[in-house]
Design brief:
- The structure holds two protein chains of two kinds.
- By secondary structure, chain A is mainly alpha-helical.
- Chain A is built from eight helices and two strands; from the N terminus they run αααααββααα.
- Chain A has helices spanning 5-22, 28-56, 64-86, 89-108, 126-155, 172-205, 213-234, 240-258; strands at 161-162, 165-166.
- Chain A has a two-stranded antiparallel sheet with strand order 1-2.
- In chain A, strand 1 and strand 2 (165-166) form a beta hairpin.
- In chain A, helix 3 crosses helix 5.
- Chain A is globular and about 60 Å long.
- The relative contact order of chain A is 0.09.
- By secondary structure, chain B is α+β, with helices and mostly antiparallel strands.
- Helices cover 35% and strands 30% of the residues of chain B.
- Chain B is elongated.
- Classes of the chains: A mainly alpha, B alpha+beta.
- Chains A and B meet through helix 6 and helix 7 of A and helix 5, strand 5, strand 13 and helix 9 of B.
């Protein structure tokens, strides 16, 4: 089946890109067409997964390349769901971009189709656990960018162009509104990731929480966003800057959790390092 | 002096900080002079009493003094913020500091302060305890004046509280035992983490240990034994017969792959289900430039048979890497005292079995013998508090979904 993969990649990427542009068209019919194209791109990957499943006579969950197909598929799906929940067009773009990245990684690094999954990773929890984390990271990363923008904009409130390109600046209130939305979505998915991880750990390692370094750092970054949510809840009317600062610190903790953990002295006891 | 006036709301941060500072100092002193908190203190029935005492004490305090500022403070968002941050800082310590008691160079003061196992220290426990109180009082505050709009709040806070509360109390009753299963021998004994042997009211008898393998991979290595290209070794997975792949300057074609093979002579292998068989394949290696071809057997080798490789030139050798485990599983018979029925079960990684409250996990095997291992190591875990923890987790999942939905507005 993999010999047809390049067609799938081209189709999905093309559809997703077209959908991403069309969604900003003022006409309603264009937006609907965009949603349809986005759905078709997702469905094409879905069909490829089913076709692989049938021809391989096993769920395509065995190699890293196979799991990336699932990531792309679910990115498309989550993008649609989040769009229908929040009606924010750029969220659809963002999900499509993530989906495209995973397709292209597999396309340009076909040798990884040979990478096999060790027994502990072969679980129905693997894909949901990873997917919700990827999506959470995507949302929280975006929120951090907007927070940095918010801080810069607060310093230079009258700036309205970068390198000659003019834009309509967000007010501080608008920035914090966007940050807030994103953090709440990101936090929710982070919580799902943490809890799915706990449920999986019980099945695979015998206990739902063992203070493994990755778990510990996931918990720390979760506390970071919890701090943001409580601070924001308590001081709705205060200046936005403190909120932005908390968001940036929380994201730094998340970065440590993401790949910094491997470089800490505690890494050697982790079950989450799959080197080799 | 009117305490309630002095205790102005604006000072909630100040008082939160004071409470936490006092708890931390007390925790550090207790840790230094009395040592860590032992898991056994939470063993049944102590954990039941601690749980009941916690709930009745703080619920009574709340009902009696809910108008008072100190209850207000203990259930407040400022306390939640300060305690979350301090708990976070302690957890960062847990996630970054790596010292071991067995290391003679480790700083004795740091060891005494429990830096090698922060989760068992008094100061960590006090912070955890404060978070539990904070959550519990906040839940009571919202629950007693019940409104539909509070459902999300209650699901999240109660779910988290229950998960943490049942998780920490349940630790004392968590039993983890290891059992070594040998072929056809019923085993009633298991070993705990301190090496004590216990006899259980259940037994397991290993009937068959199986490893499913992934097809082997071929690599080209140099004379130092490094797979090539050195920065990113290329492999040919022998998944499909008659397929071929380029490795460096050679094209390799697979004709026949034998997952169970024994040597017939120095250069030939044949399929055989014999105990201790290895993996072998018949392949053609073609030099892309010179078009020179040769067809030969290649074998991974194991504890019983040496590997068979193909030397291409002075610095290039084709080798077959040992098979990687795809899954391993033990077919066992389960005996229980007082029961005549004997059950047959399969224990697999990620698929533990349940016997009379115990969960049994596949852990390991004799790695030297690989798939011919006649030893299977399983772990038996008893965690009677798990249903409560899971209830907490599922409430928290529901609460998070509700939060996501509410965020829409």
């Amino acid at each position: 089946m993999w010999q047809y993969f390049s067609y799938i990649v081209f189709t999905a990427v093309l559809l997703w890109l077209t959908a991403s542009v069309l969604v900003y068209n003022k006409r309603n019919s264009a937006v609907r067409l965009s949603l349809a194209l986005h759905s078709i791109a997702t469905a094409v990957i879905g069909f490829f997964i089913i076709a692989l499943w049938v021809t391989l006579e096993r769920p395509p969950m065995r190699t890293l390349a196979e799991t990336r197909l699932w990531y792309s598929f679910f990115m498309g799906l989550i993008g649609l769901v989040v769009y229908f929940l929040y009606k924010q067009k750029w969220m659809l773009n963002y999900a499509a971009a993530m989906g495209i990245v995973f397709m292209l990684v597999t396309f340009f690094k076909p040798d990884t189709t040979n990478k096999t999954l060790m027994p502990a990773l072969q679980s129905i929890w693997f894909v949901p656990h990873v997917i919700v984390y990827i999506f959470a990271y995507a949302m929280l990363g975006m929120a951090t960018l907007v927070a940095v923008y918010g801080i810069v904009q607060a310093r230079r409130p009258h700036q309205n162009s970068i390198a000659g390109i003019r834009y309509k600046p967000y007010t501080a209130a608008e920035s914090i509104e966007v940050v807030d939305r994103l953090i709440n979505i990101g936090y929710a998915f982070l919580t799902f990731g943490l809890l799915f991880g706990a449920l999986w750990a019980k099945e695979a390692w015998g206990h739902y929480w063992t203070w493994d370094p990755k778990e510990t750092w996931a918990f720390i970054s979760w506390l970071g966003y919890l701090t943001y949510i409580h601070y924001r809840h308590k001081y709705k009317d205060r200046k936005a800057i403190t909120n932005f600062v908390i968001v940036i610190i929380a994201f730094m903790l998340l970065i440590v959790c993401w790949f910094g953990v491997n470089y800490l002295p505690t890494a050697q006891m982790s079950v989450h390092t799959y080197s080799g | 002096m009117n305490f309630n006036i002095a205790f102005h709301k604006k000072d909630q941060y100040k008082y939160s900080a004071i409470i936490i500072a006092v708890l931390l100092v007390a925790g550090v002193l207790l840790q230094y002079f009395t040592g860590p908190i032992a898991k056994q203190w939470f063993a049944f029935p102590n954990n039941i009493w601690i749980g009941v005492a916690f709930i009745s004490l703080f619920t009574t305090l709340f009902l009696l003094f809910k108008q008072k500022e100190f209850i207000n403070l203990l259930s407040s968002v400022p306390l939640a913020l300060v305690s979350t941050i301090i708990l976070g800082v302690l957890t960062i310590g847990l996630g970054s500091i790596h010292i071991e008691a067995s290391d003679p160079k480790a700083n004795p003061v740091l060891l005494r302060l429990g830096f090698d196992r922060i989760t068992t220290t008094w100061y960590f426990a006090f912070m955890f305890f404060l978070v539990l109180i904070n959550l519990w009082l906040a839940i009571l505050k919202k629950a007693l004046v019940f409104q539909t709009k509070n459902i999300t709040f209650l699901l999240n806070h109660f779910g988290l509280w229950l998960t943490l509360f049942a998780g920490v109390l349940g630790q004392g009753d968590l039993t983890r035992l290891t059992m070594n299963l040998k072929q056809d021998q019923p085993e009633w004994r298991a070993t705990d983490e301190n090496g004590h042997i216990t006899e259980l009211s259940l037994a397991l008898e290993l009937k068959k240990f199986d490893i499913d393998i992934y097809p082997n991979k071929l690599y080209i290595i140099n004379k130092e034994g490094k797979a090539l290209p050195q920065n990113k070794p290329q492999a040919f997975m022998l998944e499909k017969e008659h397929s071929s792949q380029h490795l460096l300057n050679w094209k390799i074609t697979l004709h026949e792959y034998l997952p169970n093979a024994i040597p017939v002579n120095d250069t030939t292998f044949a399929a055989s289900p014999m105990w201790g068989a290895t993996n072998a394949a018949r392949i053609t290696v073609e030099d892309i430039q010179t078009k020179a071809k040769r067809t030969q057997w290649i074998a991974a080798g194991n504890f019983q048979f040496p590997p068979l490789t193909i030397t291409l030139d002075s610095n290039h050798i084709v080798v077959m890497s040992p098979a990687e485990a795809r899954k391993f599983q033990s077919k066992v018979l389960v005996y229980e005292k007082g029961k005549d029925e004997i059950r047959e079960e399969t224990i697999q990684v990620n698929h533990p079995i349940t016997i009379n409250g115990w969960k049994v996990y596949q852990v390991s095997y004799d790695e030297r013998l690989g798939r011919w291992s006649e030893l299977s190591v399983v772990e038996l875990i008893l965690d009677p508090w798990l249903p409560l923890v899971y209830t907490g987790i599922f409430l928290l999942i529901a609460g998070t979904a509700a939060f996501l939905f509410k965020n829409r507005k």
